């Protein structure tokens, strides 16, 4: 059963939606629930790599007033793209693609703001991880001013897998991090490249950072040690635009 085209509630309904390849962002499961159908859904979620978490029944009751049977799924309002296919088609249409990787960015408004800036700067695709990242929901759509429907978004199991694929395709990966002496003005964005932005609190995962081809930071002249991630992302993307103009 559907609710406002953003939720699916009920164990069997969610299982059927997954089988029908419906785009699901996240599933909330009731803590401590047992049963064959519940176990079947858990197994399917793990097999398909769908993001899910266990929550108290009170959380599910807030999500929907309907009989949820211990499970509520949030559906995505967009269709996600296959990364390998997107890279291939992008390289066929441009010699200097620009991609954006978001390493477990969690705030939906930051996500929406980044998507909006990405559309304005000609980003060819945004890559996010299936688990741990902000969902594409109503707040994302509103903050992006509709750009979420214009920029291809890919979901991958691990950001590192996406990096390997981009690098194998001749696309340089640049990490936005303060852990470097290079500023964005020292790094070339003129060739095919992908920019990685980290999460709001932790930044880029150290294991991901090690794999980057280049690192760059923004010069900060005040007392505050960091910028909002969506603002920082805008600075990086517009430096890439400046260099390419």
Summary keywords:
9 helices; 5-stranded mixed sheet; alpha/beta; 6-stranded parallel sheet; 245 residues
* Largest sheet data: 6 strands, parallel
Q: Which range does the strand content fall in?
A: 15-25%
Rounded mean pLDDT is 91
Strand order of the largest sheet: 8-7-6-10-9-11
Low-confidence runs: 1-5
The count of strands amounts to 11
Topology:
Layout: E1 2-3, E2 7-9, H1 11-19, E3 24-30, H2 36-48, E4 52-55, H3 57-63, E5 71-75, H4 83-93, E6 98-102, H5 108-120, E7 125-129, H6 138-143, E8 153-156, H7 159-168, E9 172-176, E10 193-197, H8 206-209, E11 214-216, H9 229-244
Parallel strand pairs: 3-4, 6-7, 6-10, 7-8, 9-10, 9-11
Antiparallel strand pairs: 1-2, 2-5, 3-5
Helix pairs in contact: 1-2, 5-9
Describe the 3D structure.
- This protein is α/β, with parallel strands linked by helices.
- Helix content is 36%, strand content 20%.
- A six-stranded parallel sheet has the order 8-7-6-10-9-11, sandwiched between helices. Strands 1-2-5-3-4 form a five-stranded mixed sheet.
- Helix 5 (108-120) packs parallel to helix 9.
- It is elongated.
- It starts with a strand and ends with a helix.
Short description:
With 245 residues, this protein is of the alpha/beta class. It is 36% helix and 20% strand.
């Amino acid at each position: 059963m559907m609710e406002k085209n953003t939720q699916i509630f009920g164990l069997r309904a969610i299982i059927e939606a997954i089988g029908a390849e419906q785009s699901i962002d996240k599933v909330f499961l009731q803590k401590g629930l047992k049963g064959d159908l519940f176990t079947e859904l858990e197994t399917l979620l793990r097999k398909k790599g769908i993001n899910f978490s266990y929550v108290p029944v009170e959380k599910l009751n807030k999500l929907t007033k309907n009989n949820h049977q211990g499970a509520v799924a949030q559906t995505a309002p967009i269709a996600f793209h296959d990364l390998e296919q997107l890279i291939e088609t992008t390289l066929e249409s441009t010699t200097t693609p620009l991609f954006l990787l978001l390493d477990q960015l969690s705030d939906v408004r930051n996500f929406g703001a980044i998507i909006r800036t990405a559309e304005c700067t000609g980003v060819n695709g945004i890559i996010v991880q299936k688990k741990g990242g902000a969902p594409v929901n109503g707040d994302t759509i509103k903050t992006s001013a509709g750009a979420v429907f214009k920029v291809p978004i890919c979901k991958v199991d691990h950001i590192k897998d996406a990096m390997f694929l981009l690098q194998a395709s001749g696309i340089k990966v640049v990490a936005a991090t303060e852990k470097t002496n290079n500023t964005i003005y020292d790094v070339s964005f003129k060739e095919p490249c992908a920019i990685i932005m980290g999460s709001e609190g932790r930044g880029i995962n150290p294991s991901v950072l090690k794999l980057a081809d280049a690192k760059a930071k923004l010069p900060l002249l005040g007392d505050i040690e960091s910028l909002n991630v969506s603002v920082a992302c805008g600075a990086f993307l517009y430096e890439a635009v400046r260099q390419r103009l």
